[in-house]
Amino acid sequence: MANTTASVIRTTERSEALRAAGIALILGLGLVFLTGFAYPEVIHNAAHDTRHSLSFPCH
Amino acid sequence: MLTRILSVGLLAGLLAGLLIAAVQQVTTTPLILAAETYEKPAEVSAAPKVPHSHQGTEAHSHDDGWKPADGMPRFFFTAITTIATAVGVAFVLMAVMVFAGAPIDERRALAWAIAGFIACGLAPAAGLAPELPGSAAGDLIARQLWWVGTAIATAVALWAFLRADHHPVVRLGAVVLLLAPHFIGAPHPHELESKVPAELAAQFTALSLVVQALLWALVGIGIGLLWPKFAPKTAG
Questions:
Q1: Whether A53 and B78 lie within 8 Å, measured CB to CB
Q2: Of B107, B67, B211, which Cα lies nearest the Cα of A56?
Q3: What is the value of ipTM here, to two decimals?
Q4: Cβ separation A50–B124 shorter than 8 A
Q5: pTM of the predicted structure, to 2 decimals
């Protein structure tokens, strides 16, 4: 019984970790997309030197 | 868990981004400014130097769109976007480590960060060398797609190759996946007509890779150091 409870807790922890990782992945990719890839001119111009410096395709 | 990832990512990204912004100021930015002096004489017309500027919703102001003025404003925006990139990198790095079930500690976070640099820095650079403004380049969207595709393929290939159960077939598949983008080939311009001197361009390409490697390494080290400090207090 104790084992089952422990494994249920572990499974819950794991699924919570995966959900958190999913949210972090989407946030992270969103940030990198904005700074490295997004087209609006304002974003491009603000991030221009960063894009070149970190070897994202620019221009 | 989410709070922990976000806190560590924000802090590690902020610290790494600040350091890298300072490094950029003395390495890549002076070269970008130098390259722009070669770019400008040929484009004195009203056309801004951004060929893809018409895809945004507000891009129809024509003439000069907003851009940070040279000097402090430009440094400020470069620093902000570098920090944002570093935070994004930190989030992605922790997310994939959690997905893969890898414990997050100093050595592992740094190792995963180095793998991240290989996937997002070295591998794409093999096809699309980091370039200065004014360099000849192929179609932007095609290059971005190739860049993203190469980064993903390399990341998956590294992960598959380095897994504990190194089955030969899996490893062979990983090598094929690693090489595939380079056989497909990166999109290149029809004519090589860069106005920037080759010495500047070469120096920039090397420095840009070094800066990116540093960014990944600092983010990795930051995550490794900060992760234990944000451990949940009620653990156990």
A1: yes
A2: B211
A3: 0.90
A4: no
A5: 0.87
